[in-house]
Amino acid sequence: MREKTLPWLMAVSALAAAACLAGLAWTLYDYFREVPPVTLTKPPEAVQEAPAAPAEDDGKFRVLALGDSLTRGYGDPEGKGYAGYLADALKGKAKEEVVLENLGVNGQTSPQLAEMLGQAAVQGQVKAADIILVSIGGNDLFRGGETLATLDLAAVAKIQEEYTKQLQGILGRLRELNPQANLFLIGLYNPFIELKDANVTSKIVRDWNYQAAETAAAYPKTVLVPTFDLFQLKVSDYLYTDQFHPNVQGYKLIAERAAALVTW
Predict the structure, then answer these.
(1) Could you list the residue ranges that cross the membrane (predicted)?
(2) What residues contact 140, with CB distance under 8 A and at least 6 apart?
(3) Which CATH number does the domain housing residue 90 bear?
């Protein structure tokens, strides 16, 4: 009897899992179809070229921010984002003048950041930095909602594998250019945690962060700054009107978490 029942139970479980994923895909399809266009009071501008790095140590404490729209501050009317609020927090602690260079680019992916690090001006900024902030990977994973709206766990695993290789190259290059600066990699949060079947998307994001943290741990003075828990309990309070990027409060949470890790 058990031998006949087991295949039947496995088949039912497989159908239930497929239905769950199908329901999530349909929910996310509706979500991205209905998201209103975004309007910022002060839209952030994409950085085309990095400013020239200082020729010598000028006694300033330099914070370099690299990466995607979270670094750029999309969703913050002032365009500060977590990098700007972090710099503000450090100004009250540092003895030197704190200077922030924000080279974030809206929509940037890990291959694009890796390419950007080939620019001489960017390399100069990396060498001059006392702290390096990096937020990258959200566009690799979410792809404007395409990945999760057409949820395919095998495809997600492939995306994660490709991203890990890119991240290794990015972190390795940053450490080559500047072995001394503390490097903070900003982890991902789940903006879809209040939608149907959020346990699936949350597991994807947690697994993604775990692999990113393991990758970062292989490099000296490099840590992942967790953000998943900051948005977990009441994500809607910390998201911008597009329900994807952080709002001012969300960015300040990330900045406070990163600032707590900065040592002098």
Answers:
(1) none
(2) 109, 110, 159, 162, 163, 166
(3) 3.40.50.1110
